[in-house]
Amino acid sequence: MSERRTTAVLDRTGLDALVQVLRARGRTVIGPTVRDGAVVLADLATAEELPFGWGTEVEAGRYRLVPRADGAAFAHTTGPQSWKAFLHPEREKVWDADRTADGRLSVAEAPRARPSYAFLGVRPCDLRAVAIQDRVLAGGRYQDRGYRERRAGAFLIAAECTEPGATCFCVSMGSGPGADAGFDLALTELVDETGHRFHVRAGSDAGDELLAEVPHRPAEPETQAAARDAVDAARERMGRAMPPVDLRTLLGDSLEADRWDDVAARCLTCGNCTMVCPTCFCTTTEEITDLTGDHAERWQRWDSCFDLDFSYLHGGPVRASARSRYRQWLTHKLSTWYEQFGSSGCVGCGRCITWCPVGIDITEEASALHDELAARLRRHDQEGENGRKESEP
Ligand code: SF4
Ligand code: SF4
């Protein structure tokens, strides 16, 4: 284990060399690129495919690409995908079953795709999300083997946030905008009078070793200070914040809140929020047979707690109303997740706000629940006070 990690500066050529070294080592490099009017995550052949000169404008239920004059590559917010699309794919075959010539049944585990991934441009909130999925899918008694194997070989290059979006609230969830753990390399992009460059910190032996193969110069104190300042400035420009209360207790005390009816009247139960969320992990399985009956397959695919079938027991779904399904999602995410996995299930990435077709905002809902609970407690105190006065002689 290295005592001292490398800090360095790369220019655009150095960034491309980084991609080429990773590819030469047989890695599939996944990073942000512009496609179909959005910044999406895709296989990159070269760093030139990064979204240089593109930023994003986001709001509740709204996402737009906007050109940037400074040519920055990492000045966009999180897009509709997260890294779970690669580590925990949306659909994956589990096994094949075939009837053999002698009429017996042969069942074979399906081969799992195990690319050697390098993720370029992982936001600090998404680093936290990967750590949460590690705990859920590879940290307990029941592990997802495909996830564990893909994750074990993955090389993570973080991109610290210097341009938070209007739906971001990582500061109030303690997950950004700076990267402090869980990466092999962390980049901070700087575009100023000194030029366009990337301050790089190694976070692992693998990061140190890779950086040694890439043309770079040592990080001078001015660049180190500029990188710190850019991240500190981003901290002050968060678009949103969770209410500064114990969310775990708040949700636990709000199970009968009237606010659930309000949000249920707006929620389409489409499940978009669970699909874009980088920590949502639920899956279901389905079996498919061919028409001859000689071949069957089992597939695992993402599921959503907004789907009626998700809680279907004999006779019908346990959570039949939109109220109960939204409440389940929010209560799990912000409260009961602690009991299961020891942390919040939300990292403040803002995706569920941006990609909700009706603009439902998790921070606004938490604030409304807090206000309702506070009003209920005030009423309760007042009634107690009145009762005491009436009983006074
Ligand atoms: S909160 Fe929004 S994204 Fe989530 S299920 Fe409801 S309408 Fe769809
Ligand atoms: S709940 Fe929303 S803000 Fe929180 S991690 Fe999921 S998508 Fe991001």
TrEMBL record:
Gene Ontology molecular function, alphabetical: iron-sulfur cluster binding; metal ion binding
Tell me the InterPro entries matching this sequence. 4Fe4S_Fe-S-bd, 4Fe4S_Fe_S_CS
Cross-referenced Pfam families: Fer4_22
The identity of this protein, by name, is 4Fe-4S ferredoxin
What UniProt keywords are attached to this protein's entry? Iron, Iron-sulfur, Metal-binding
Instruction: Please state every residue range assigned to the domain named 4Fe-4S ferredoxin-type.
Output: 256-287, 337-365
